[in-house]
Design goal:
293 residues, mainly alpha, 11 helices, globular
Length: 293
């Protein structure tokens, strides 16, 4: 295993914005390869999700493996090497395959715990009589308002706890695949270092998250407006088939959203690599797949 740093570095808040710049550079330097990788990845995840009973489990288990391969691809770009579609599958090769799978298994356990806590919080935070009255309400919106009024302080506290756990979940995972694939860390060591780095670098992550939210909102407005613009003619000219026009407009919006995902997700992967390199990366002339060394 290559040398691991003992403690994550703490960087200035502005580095959160710089991560987006690095992600964009990594994406544009191999634009069409990234698009091809994303299309293949989406197809694979859809096929896995269709497997009865085990599809969701397989998706959770394999996601860190794919992410590890993409981190290797980002490192290759940094070494002025070409990104290859094969990088998507490099996480399945060598000694780090099992640690990446263990990360997925831990994620499954955490997700089940969060789900159980959510159900317990919602059901336990509501009075039985209020639940019974909600069942008799015909208006869904009124039922929603009734559920909000029925929530007790315990229920609200439970929901807040769920949000905290979800944040911890993200912090444990953000840099973990990169640490396993690039530094040969064990699954638990990688998740620990990922959490420590995310916690200590809360300021750059705050900037990073604010920019990410702005990008999502801008993309939604842009593609939503484009869908309305392109579908306006259909809506105005289909007075006899109004529902068909509305359905067509929704389909158009979904297609545009998928196109946006193809463009945004590779940048996000690049930002993850940039954050790892800033806070956890070790200077090394040859950062590669430990399976080949």
């Amino acid at each position: 295993m290559k040398s691991m740093i003992g403690e994550p570095r703490v960087v200035e808040a502005g580095r959160g914005a710089a991560w987006w710049g690095t992600g964009w550079r990594l994406f544009t330097s191999n634009f069409w390869t990234w698009i091809g990788i994303m299309i293949i990845y989406i197809i694979i995840t859809v096929l896995i999700s269709q497997v009865p009973y085990v599809g969701d489990v397989g998706h959770w288990l394999l996601t860190p493996v794919f992410m590890g391969g993409l981190m290797l691809g980002c490192a290759a770009i940094e070494r002025n090497e070409p990104l290859r579609v094969a990088h998507l599958f490099e996480g399945f090769q060598g000694v780090h395959f099992v640690p990446l799978m263990i990360i997925g298994a831990v994620n499954i356990a955490l997700a089940l715990g969060i789900g159980a806590l959510a159900v317990a919080g919602v059901m336990g935070g509501m009075k039985l009589a209020d639940v019974a009255r909600m069942g008799a309400i015909g208006d869904p919106f009124e039922a929603f308002l009734g559920s909000a009024r029925a929530m007790t302080g315990t229920g609200l506290l439970t929901m807040l706890l769920i949000l905290v756990i979800a944040a911890v979940f993200a912090m444990l995972n953000w840099f973990a695949p990169a640490l396993v694939a690039l530094r040969g860390a064990t699954a638990f060591e990688a998740m620990k270092l990922s959490f420590m780095s995310s916690l200590r670098n809360w300021a750059p992550f705050l900037v990073y998250g604010a920019i990410g939210i702005a990008i999502v909102v801008a993309a939604f407005l842009l593609f939503g407006g484009l869908a309305l613009l392109l579908g306006a003619g259909a809506l105005l000219g289909s007075s006899n088939n109004g529902w068909g026009a509305v359905i067509g407009l929704v389909v158009l919006f979904v297609v545009l959203a998928m196109i946006a995902a193809l463009l945004v997700w590779p940048v996000v992967f690049g930002t993850t690599y940039a954050g790892y390199k800033d806070t956890l990366g070790v200077a090394d002339d040859e950062i590669g797949n430990p399976a080949y060394q």
